[in-house]
Hints:
Layout: H1 17-25, H2 41-52, E1 57-61, E2 66-69, H3 90-93, H4 98-111, E3 115-121, E4 124-126, E5 129-131, E6 134-143, E7 149-158, H5 160-181, E8 186-191, E9 196-200, H6 202-208, H7 212-215, H8 220-223, H9 232-242, E10 246-257, E11 260-274, E12 280-289, H10 291-312, E13 317-322, E14 327-330, H11 332-338, H12 342-345, H13 356-372, E15 376-383, E16 389-400, E17 406-415, H14 423-458, E18 461-466, E19 472-475, H15 477-483, H16 487-490, H17 501-505, H18 508-519, E20 521-529, E21 535-546, E22 552-561, H19 563-601, H20 605-622, H21 628-659, E23 664-668, H22 669-679, H23 681-686, E24 690-693, E25 698-702, H24 703-719, E26 728-737, E27 751-759, H25 791-801, E28 805-811, E29 815-823
Parallel strand pairs: 24-26
Antiparallel strand pairs: 1-2, 1-7, 3-6, 4-5, 6-7, 8-9, 8-12, 10-11, 11-12, 13-14, 13-17, 15-16, 16-17, 18-19, 18-22, 20-21, 21-22, 23-25, 26-27, 27-29, 28-29
Helix pairs in contact: 19-21, 20-21, 21-25, 24-25
Amino acid sequence: MKYMPNAQDFPFLAKGGEMGRLIQQTDWNNSPLGPIESWETSLRATLGIVLSCPFPMFLLWGEDLLCFYNDAYRPSLGVEGKHPAIGKKGREVWADIWDFIGPLIDRVIRTGESVSFQDQLVGFYRNGRMEDIYWTFCYSAVFDDSGKINGVVITCTETTDTVVTRRKLEESERRLRSMILRAPVSIAILQGPDYVVEIANNKSLQIWGRSGEEVLGQPILEAMPELKTQGIEAILDEVYSTGKIFSTAELPVQLHRNGKLETAYVNFSCEPLFNSSGEIDGIMAVGIDVTEQVMSRQKILESETLFRAIADNIPNLAWMADADGWIYWYNKKWYEYTGKTPEEMEGWGWQSVHDPNVLDTVLTKWKHSLKKGEPFEMVFPLKGKDGRFRQFLTRVLPLYDEHGKIVQWFGSNTDIEDQKSFRDELEKQVKERTAELLKLNESLKKSEERYHLMVEEVQDYAILYISKEGIVENWNTGAQKIKGYPAAEIIGRSFSNFYTEEDRKRGLPMTLLNKAIEKGKATQEGWRVKKDGSRFWASVVITAVHNDQREIIGFSKVTHDLTEKKEAADALEAKKTELEEKNAELQRMNKELQSFAYISSHDLQEPLRKIQTFASRIIEKEYASLSDKGRELFNRMQRSAEQMQALINDLLAYSRTNTAEHVYQKVSLATVIERIKQDLREELEEKQGEIILKTDVEVNVIHFQFQQMFYNLISNSIKFSRPGTPLRIAVWAERVSGTSIPVKHLPHDRDYWHIQVRDNGIGFEPEYNERIFELFQRLHGKSEYKGTGIGLSIVKKIAENHGGNISASGQPGQGATFDIYLPVERM
Length: 827
């Protein structure tokens, strides 16, 4: 019967759990370690520590780096992964990541120094697929009984969930900040009891009249000292101390912007921000600038006040109703005559002052006017506050909006009780006066609109009148805005104050006046000086003003601030110089790349060929003298040299896609495919492969690059064909509109050739659709499929060189599809 050790015989396995039992059940007699009872004390002691540790640990022991691990490490190997790996060689178990961990293990064994990483990406195969896994781990040396380093112990923790969660949080924070910065309302985050500005979006900076550098990281009341005396500090303190939300509409705030204090009206709210402990640690301030709406309403109120003042002082009773006839306003004369209150008269309350015998007729005619939108005119009695009725001539006219829709009615009642004999004439006068009043009201409204429009238009220009001697006599608001002087400070002074010291010394102001005298007009561009001493770039037009006798009596001077245009022109010139320098640098780098290509194709390959040649000669002539190990090493050396040769050739091909001349010519797709069939005849026959060209097109391309593209794609299909299944590669092409292609960054206002290459090979996971084109990207181990990971990178570069694009899609076991989009005409 086979001897099976137990935990009592070997205490170091007693607390080893599942892995300890697995070690007991393993037959070690034929392993390099021999039976358990012969193991070194150091190995037993180390395994005792590893197996009983609650943290994931892995041990690689001996020359073959045999694998041991504890129960805590077991879940990291997945459900369909590398478990059980106990007693297996480390290089075999971790072949997929040995290129990464092998050098680390060699370093620890060679130097005895520990190696550690935090949140390191080390992906390997588990759970039936390749997974990206992040680790925090430490590699430490382990000594045998003689004191010699004989292994490596690995203490590790998988941090994939932590890394993914942290990245999601960072992305979430980035999106939140982006939303705040781009929000259409003012949003600011103020931190701590000093209300330090942590975030202020573009709308906030626009309302405050500040730049980000002026406020970010500063206490808000220090960055904007004008707020200290306006009660803002008390509002912030109340929210911060009580946690109550403050909200108000049309809050007037004085802000220092555009070089002066301006009053802004803001719909404003403050909300407390809480930390993870539930304590208030900041405030979010939200504001909407409603200055324009408030000012517009104030203007409307001013206009309405003016209108009512006029209406209250006419000798007629007057009133206004909405489109449905609901009367909402009477003038003062109405209340003086009727003795009624506004509450009694509102709406249809006016019926109480009408004669009941006539009221039905009045109502019928008034409702007819409302329905038809026609003017109303009628004579009927109204009762005064003394209880007596007097005859009134009543006329009501509809008022329309810009769309021709009735929005209100204007009515007037004229007392004609004492003028019955002159009724016809009086009716005519009332009609004319009412029309004049409406016309005057409309004219006033239009005049006010034109005046405000003119002021707004002219504020971008400084317009002034100067005397023959150059003294400023008149000054508009645009001049104050541009030059900074109020009219009172500049009228009576020489206009030369706006010119720089250099221009005044060379007499430029008077030169311009003399030129205007001689030619009628003088124009000039140059630097001018504002009141605060700062400079601005101005376009100036000075025109001579004449009297009826054609004598010059003064000058008009119009100045336009073109500072932004000047700065943009200067920046454009600087950008042009920068681009020229970068172009020269690009040409230099291109020459260096060509030199590198030459070295790659000659100097680097020459010693490589010698290595291959010498290795071949040794194997041919000294084969019998070599040991099996020596033959294996020479074979491995030749394979490595061949891999290096392929890598150099692929790198050279990749570099040529950038440096080669782009000479376009018409090429038949069928010709290209036929050439590739000849070049890859043996490989296709080996795979029982067939290339099927479904449609032929003639494309305008760089011939050798186009040939290289399809050579790489078809070689790729051959390399990744399914064993035992005849290879089928289908190629077809069609002309499509740019609006129908799925590639967003390509121009959609042109047509493209859509060329598709599809095979029935091993395919790949959809998650690698993009990564498959990355330089040196490999989805399989070198031992499974040969290659350098550059072929598809070359394909993508060639597509981009033609102004096009390539994408890939696939499913494991179902083949791969490559979609190429190339412009129909040369770009």
